[in-house]
């Protein structure tokens, strides 16, 4: 995946070695590497070096999204400092005070990084690295101006130890790596998944006896107990003069063997033709490896110009999303408002058309109701009333007029023959209650028959003889119209 490609840069004052890696199957694959020098520049300029790095990456098609820098040992100092704490967070909070007390100098102008060399009951022994803030600022600003924003800036020896931890033989706990580039020397204790026993870096002059220098530094390191063993196995590599294990063996009281950094990382030597030497390559390779939890303290950027790349990308993404949502909501609001305006215009037109007709057919109304629904309801009621009056009683038998008409028709049809006297006629809802009396019971039954013939259905009836008359009460309702 292109988004996971990482660039490792080993920076010296006049040289840069660049390695580009990509994760593959739980390991890393080399995409490209090169070295470039600016020794012709007087004085060496970090901006020029950064410009050439970016140009060389573009020419080789090396694309990446993350980068890290391995800082050359000439650009920082390493000190041994004791901390009263063994917890990482507490050490990180107090390391500047401990370093200032140990060095007896003001370190306000210095960036501080550290690694825990060992822990004990009295605290922890630290390797503290200090670099001038101005130097780090020049490096970071020069790289950032070319679109390279390193996640981490770490000491070169620590990056080399990460390469050895990735590819070295960690099963041998007493192994020490003695590695020489053209102008730098490194002594690295056995790396493993948890820690590195020790790291040392020292300059190598062009006229120095490299064999004697390496012998002296190895013996000093062993005498200080840095290896953790009395007789460690020494792995030797001289990238410039080809110093062999057989050349060094008689001079040191250790088992000595040759070290091949390229073969260790399964790198074809043909891929390193653009690099000055394999040690510089291994340092840049270690810088390009993904950081782990134990790498936090060795990052100078934690103390100076903290890396904000991921945070800035997240902020830009959130800002873009917020702007997009705002524009979308505004567009939806404008669309809804335009739709509402069109509907309101249509309503206004229809209201203007309806108002003259409405007032003409609705006597007593001086103006159109506030809502069209109310107007439609009133018109519906008026239409139903008109239809009832125009279609006759059979068409709508629910009105008071229709009910009274039916009752009067029935009573008029039989009143003379039955000697009918009406007491009360009560209309309530759909029912009509009639209280009356006739001269005798058969006449009462004729009244009931006349009501049915007139279209009234009997619901309830009662009658009783009283005072020589047959008094009755009957409840009727208009029959439902059928066949319509």
UniProtKB/TrEMBL annotation:
The chain crosses the membrane at residues 317-336. Pfam families: T2SSL. This is Type II secretion system protein GspL. The lineage of its organism: Bacteria, Pseudomonadati, Planctomycetota, Phycisphaerae, Sedimentisphaerales. It comes from Anaerobaca lacustris. InterPro entries: ATPase_NBD (IPR043129), GspL_cyto_dom (IPR024230). Residues 80-167 form the GspL cytoplasmic actin-ATPase-like domain. Keywords: Membrane, Transmembrane, Transmembrane helix.
């Amino acid at each position: 995946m292109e988004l996971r490609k990482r660039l490792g840069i080993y920076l010296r004052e006049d040289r840069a070695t660049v390695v580009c890696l990509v994760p593959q199957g739980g390991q890393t694959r080399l995409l490209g590497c090169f070295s470039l020098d600016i020794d012709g520049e007087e004085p060496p300029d970090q901006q020029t070096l950064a410009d050439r790095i970016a140009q060389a990456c573009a020419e080789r098609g090396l694309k990446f999204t993350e980068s890290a820098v391995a800082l050359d040992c000439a650009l920082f100092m390493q000190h041994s400092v004791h901390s009263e704490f063994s917890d990482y967070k507490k050490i990180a909070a107090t390391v500047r005070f401990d370093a200032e007390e140990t060095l007896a100098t003001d370190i306000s102008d210095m960036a501080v990084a550290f690694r825990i060399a060992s822990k004990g009951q009295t605290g922890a022994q630290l390797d503290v690295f200090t670099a001038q803030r101005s130097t780090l600022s020049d490096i970071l600003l020069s790289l950032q101006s070319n679109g390279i924003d390193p996640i981490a800036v770490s000491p070169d020896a620590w990056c080399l130890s990460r390469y050895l931890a990735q590819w070295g033989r960690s099963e041998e706990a007493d192994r020490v790596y003695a590695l020489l580039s053209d102008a730098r020397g490194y002594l690295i204790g056995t790396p493993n998944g948890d820690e590195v026993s020790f790291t040392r870096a020292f300059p190598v002059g062009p006229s120095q006896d490299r064999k004697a220098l390496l012998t002296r530094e190895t013996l000093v390191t062993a005498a200080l107990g840095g290896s953790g063993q009395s007789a460690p196995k020494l792995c030797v590599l001289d990238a410039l003069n080809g110093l062999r294990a057989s050349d060094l063996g008689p001079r040191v009281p250790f088992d000595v063997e040759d070290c091949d950094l390229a073969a260790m990382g399964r790198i074809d030597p043909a891929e390193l033709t653009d690099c000055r030497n394999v040690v510089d390559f291994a340092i840049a390779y270690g810088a390009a490896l993904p950081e782990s939890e134990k790498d936090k303290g060795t990052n100078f950027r934690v103390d100076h110009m903290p890396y904000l790349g991921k945070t800035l990308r997240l902020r830009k993404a959130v800002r873009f999303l917020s702007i997009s949502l705002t524009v979308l909501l505004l567009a939806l609001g404008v669309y809804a408002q335009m739709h509402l305006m069109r509907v309101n215009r249509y309503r206004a037109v229809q209201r203007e058309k309806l108002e003259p007709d409405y007032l003409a057919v609705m006597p007593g109304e001086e103006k159109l109701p506030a809502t069209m629904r109310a107007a439609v309801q009133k018109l519906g009621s008026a239409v139903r009333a008109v239809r009832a009056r125009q279609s006759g009683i059979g068409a709508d038998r629910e009105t008071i007029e229709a009910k009274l008409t039916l009752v009067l028709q029935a009573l008029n049809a039989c009143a003379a023959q039955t000697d009918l006297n009406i007491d009360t006629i009560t209309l309530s809802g759909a029912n009509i209650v009639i209280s009356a009396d006739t001269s005798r019971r058969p006449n009462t039954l004729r009244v009931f028959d006349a009501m049915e013939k007139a279209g009234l259905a009997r619901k309830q009836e009662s009658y009783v003889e009283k005072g020589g008359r047959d008094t009755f009460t009957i409840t009727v309702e208009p029959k439902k119209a059928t066949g319509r």
